[in-house]
Amino acid sequence: MEKIELTSENIELYLNDCVALQAFLVSDPDSINADFFTKTAVCTHSYFLALVQEGKVMGLGVISKMTHPANVTGYVNNIVVHPDTRGQGLFSVIMDDLEEKAAQWGCTDLALTCSREAVQGMYLKRGYTHKETNFYLKKI
Length: 140
Prior knowledge:
The protein is an alpha+beta fold. It has one domain: Gcn5-related N-acetyltransferase (GNAT) (Aminopeptidase). The protein has four helices and five strands. It has helices at residues 11-22, 34-42, 90-105, 117-125; strands spanning 2-5, 46-53, 56-67, 72-81, 109-111. The protein has a five-stranded mixed beta sheet with strand order 1-2-3-4-5, sandwiched between helices. It is globular. The N and C termini lie far apart (38 Å).
């Protein structure tokens, strides 16, 4: 398995695989916008990782850097592992890489949201703390 940072130079090679992989995570695959993958790959405050096996993306992860007056937070935006490769440790490979990037950026903490109960325990095992927050979202 090869770790590849997706950037403006190589995103087109992997874009279709990324979209197909994302479909395993969302309830409405028609809601996936390929342009967002491209924008993520060129964003200077994001790091976009793909795990590639035999030319096919089998896992991906995205972390963004948010700078605040008091700290720098890494926000894990997206992690997807292809169903055919689940249980092989790819989640840990992705998280290790994203956490390393956050440390390189000087992040003081990492944040994420996770609604999938099957995955929540994996974050707890990595040392993440479940927070009872009043998270708000507005579509604009």
